[in-house]
Amino acid sequence: DVQLQASGGGLVQAGGSLRLSCAASGFHFDDYSIGWFRQAPGKKREGILCIRSDDGATYYGDSVAGRSAASSDNAENTDYLQIDSLKPEDTGVYYCAADLSHCDHYDVNSDSYDMRYWGKGTLVTVSS
After folding, report:
1. Which neighbouring-strand residues pair with 49?
2. C-alpha distances in angstroms, 87 versus 5, 36, 67, 92, 125?
């Protein structure tokens, strides 16, 4: 079965950086797109980006545009999300997800941005 697990969250001071990991198993990793999402307490889920595992093409939403980057290590079935210049409003649970659809089929900024397979998230807390 498909399994995804985001990790690497924690408590970070504003202005700092984090590198989150998404470990995947149970599917052909390079056939899927990987999405990163986040949800702050009491707020709707936001799309962050979508990355194609086959070629690394990345589609960014507005939420952390200019401060984020993603990469895929197909040999390790792992995706990474780097976020720089963290702000208190970046606090939330960060999730990775996967789907067979390519990233160019999605609007990352849309409320309907969704994927078939989801992992449990990792909590990022940014202190002021």
Report:
1. 36, 60
2. 24, 18, 10, 11, 9
